[in-house]
Amino acid sequence: MKFFSKFKRLILLLLLLFIYTFICAFSYVNAVSMNIQDSVFRLHVIANSDSEKDQNLKYIVRDKVLEYINSISTDLTSKEDVINLARENIDTIQKIAENTVKENGYNYSVNLNIGNFAFPTKTYGDISFPAGFYDALKIEIGEAKGQNWWCVMFPPLCFVDVTSGIVPEESKKLIKENISEEEYQLLSENSNDVNFKFKIVEMFQNIGIKLAQS
Asked: What is d(CA 214, CA 197) in angstroms, rounded to the nearest whole number?
């Protein structure tokens, strides 16, 4: 009887330890994820379909929109400024996207929306953003049933050459100014400890996205 009593206490202690660890991990993930997500504004372009022509059109629309946004946002240093700029110029951005679609021989509609959307984990050069819900400018072309493309408008990573594996120092500086040192390490470093923390954040955020979409 004493053996079973001790065994029950051990199981209870292990269960409490698991619950405590889970709560600590959840609190850590929630704090880190919210701060990272609050510091980022993204661009999300969705193609009409997965056909080669529609996918190519998606990239043409992306390039035209980014060309315009980049021309009017070079001096902005905060996420709020970029969002406000996008809101103030959303009609112009819509016309650019619509004209680009027509100029390439299509009659697809274009729908623009600034909101909070789910994103998977994405790497830009040597910076990785975990999955989660991020504020973004979404551009839907036609039926918007094709593969999507996304980048980070603030900090400005849309023009990062991902093949080079390097994010410009100016962009990194903006990231550092908007998040804590630990959070920046989570995005940029590859040590085992940092990778483990990143995986925890990624796991919890993917669960949250699936629950929200179910």
From this structure: 26
Burial class of residue 2 in the structure, from the number of CB atoms within 10 Å of its CB (0-12 exposed, 13-18 middle, 19+ buried): exposed
Domain boundaries, the chain: 34-213
C-alpha closest to that of 99 among 146, 147, 65, 67: 65
Kindly calculate the radius of gyration of the chain based on its CA atoms and give it in whole angstroms. 21
| Residue pair 93/100 in contact by the 8 Å Cβ criterion | no
Residue (of 45, 69, 73) closest to 57 by Cα position: 45
What would the pLDDT profile of 125-176 be if each residue is shown by its tens digit? 777 788 888 899 999 999 999 988 888 888 877 765 544 456 777 777 877 8
Each as own residue / partner, the long-range contacts of residues 160-166 (CB below 8 Å, 24 or more positions apart, any chain) are 160/124, 160/125, 161/125, 162/123, 162/124, 162/125, 164/125, 165/125, 165/126, 166/125, 166/126
Instruction: Give the up-direction half-sphere exposure of residue 196: CA atoms within 13 A in the CB hemisphere.
Output: 4
Both tokens of 127, joined, read 């910076």
Please, what is the angle between helix 181-188 and helix 169-178, to 10°?
140
Strands (E), the chain: 41-46, 110-119, 122-124, 127-129, 132-141, 148-154
Task: Give the whole-angstrom CA distance, residue 41 versus residue 69.
Answer: 13
